[in-house]
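Sample intake sheet
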Amino acid sequence: MNAQVSPPDFSMRVLHDEPMSKHTSWHVGGPADVFFRPLDVADLSAFVRSLDPTTPLLWIGLGSNLLVRDGGVRGAVIETHGALGELERLTETEVRAGAGVPCAKLAKQCIKWGLGPAEFFAGIPGTLGGALAMNAGAFGGETWTHVISVSTLDRNGDVHERPASDFKYSYRHVVGPQDEWFLAATLRFEKRDGVSHDDIRALLAKRKATQPIGEWSCGSVFTNPPGDHAARLIDTAGLKGFRIGGARVSEMHANFIVNDGSATAADIEALMAHVRQTVERVHGVALATEVRTAGENV
């Protein structure tokens, strides 16, 4: 089913049959029926209202942690990066940030304001919206431990202000009101002295030394099982360097799957399945995927 967009205001900004490979960090994915980057919340609200209420919606930020299948996405894709970019200090310890703000930018600004612990956000390769959706974390920190409240948008284009208590969260998992998407969040940190950009640079240097940062990947593919690490299980199952088509398990970090430039989404998905099956056979552990999968096969 194709999404129908009627208001003339959107006609020059709505893209049709837009290749999702241009908008994902894996650089794979077939065409989206409709692709839209809003100007602001009011523009986004009007766009959502213009759609048939049965039109499927897929929200993306920087396209990390997302595998779009080769057949593409039916319905509408909404890209928040470059749009929902508010970032301001509300009080001595509270910050308001839009869903389209890159997590790395949030980390750097909090350092400037002398707030923390926020430097862990620099290790999350996506936007705050994605971090809210999955309780993303890095370097021992997690998103939702800092959330006071969020703004969401529902299928009718209406905005809601919700306290953090409306959501239940755990490791890489968040449950809240259905058919609502994050627009922004108010976050609480602590006043901190002596934290500098050198702290972020040190964390990022550590990340660069242990992860294939320069290659096309989505970040970590599998969540860590209790008391263990997915990378260790994959490595000791002998899977580093294993490939299917143009997709391979990174030799640097076994929980990363890399596109060598020729991979299809089907290659990546098949490799993910092979890794899960092999780890379960060798170690008796069923790995859960951290990456979200969307769209249709060819």
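Comment: Residues 4-8 have pLDDT under 50 and may be disordered. The chain has three domains: 8-79, 87-191, 212-294.
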